[in-house]
Protein 1
Amino acid sequence: MFKRDLKKVLAGYLKFPVVAILGPRQSGKTTLVQNVFKDYVYLSLEDLDTRNLAQNDPKKFLSIHENQKGIIIDEFQNVPDLLSYIQLEVDEKKRPGYFVLTGSQNFLMNQAISQSLAGRVGILTLPPLTINELRESRLLNSKNVDDVIFTGGYPRIYSEKIKPEIMYPSYIQSYVERDVRSLTNVGDIRSFQRFMQLCAARVGQQLNLSELASVCGISVSTSQRWISILDASYIIFLLQPYFKNFNKRITKSPKIYFYDTGLACSLLGIESSKVLGLHPLRGNIFENFIIADIAKQYFNIGKRPPIYFWRDLNGRLEVDCVIDESLLLFSVEIKSGETVATDYFDALKQWNKVSKTNVDNNYVIYGGDLNQQRSYGTIVGWKSVYNFIEKIRGEID
């Protein structure tokens, strides 16, 4: 059992009648809830008999499993109509923390919640393992950054000692055959798999739906729909550009990242950490690795990641990550090199001029081990990112 950071905030969510934990398949949701809620009845809607009863007689399903402690319903997006009956139970019996739900499909969950459980449910997200969780489990000591990026953060790889080159192709095949087909009528599965590969080849780049559609041989509307599917099922996330004007944030092109770099490497046909070290996209994948870990750290404290990227008007300089903590803005440049170069701060200097922010809030996270204060910001080695959000939020407090 890995020590999961999300466990620290779970207790605070038990004031809600329902706690929902979302996240990609195999991110450890089931293991976490069974470990935390040991006295609860565990029910999985992946089990066909259990699912049939929940679908055909939801009242009986809930009544026969009623107990003093509570109920865990795993992968409950398989029977979204069950939420209406859970709502009736919640409103009638008013038992805080009684229902614990897990699911791996975000938009189905939110659609169902908006219809029946709004105001009654506390929602958390459990991503794959973070740098900190790997560190706490003593899985970082002998590994270089390429090993960690290539292996990824799915717990099964570590707990069952499965080689990434074996794990991820099977994961992708299972994801396409089970989740994608249940989410929408994709039609040409091979084209969808190619679409995923094209997305992996564009990590850290701005999303161009027309270009993706053209290369994949699909319509732009299909390209948009498939991006939504990958986003909803926790394969990718989109990083919006930073503008003070909120309307501009949501109308400009976002950048595309994967929740897990091991999965992205597999889609790119990278078969070892040595191959990754020589790959032309290695810098983009390293950037993805750090951006994803920052996002995961926010999820693990129960917050939606307030992260963006910034590009100057000429498109020549870009800050990889801007963290908007309302009271303060933090800027992060991400460099895969193991040696700090003087030009690492160029974009940050321009950002400081435009945003009128302080150099004390500038950070460069890079592929080496040095941690050092410089005149234009702070150098942070990749292994020291494990508590990065905790540190900057401490500055606000």
Note: The first helix runs from residue 7 to 10.
Protein 2
Amino acid sequence: MSLEENKAVVRRWFDEVISNGNLSTVDLICMECHPGFVVLNGIVENPPTGLEGVKELIKMFRTAFPDLRFEIEDQIAEGNKVVSRLNVHGTHQGDFQGIPPSGKHISVSGVSIWELADGKLLQERVNWDALGLMQQLGVIPSGQAG
């Protein structure tokens, strides 16, 4: 696969799977034969593995934030990896890791690094502004310069 084709697969993940909630796309673009397929997102401890586990993780996020949208700001590919700088937006309308719905709109940034094999997604590592997310949800007070 070319670097551009790899980038297109990652864009498809964010557009079809995450932003539109199309879980059937997971089976098409993820390395289904790899039992350790995982999305390491830095927010959920011990994320589920395998295709079914990842689908559950997506359902959890989309239940908490039904209007969840991922916007790719920058994307770089090299070898079998694709790095995306992202902005994530949504409205907290369902339980999120024990945090009851607040109705608050969230907007956080993050960096996603996907590893691909044979044109399919194998593993993602994500670094999110988890502190900013918790502050926006009102769980952690925002720091105020004094």
Note: The first strand starts at residue 38 and ends at 40.
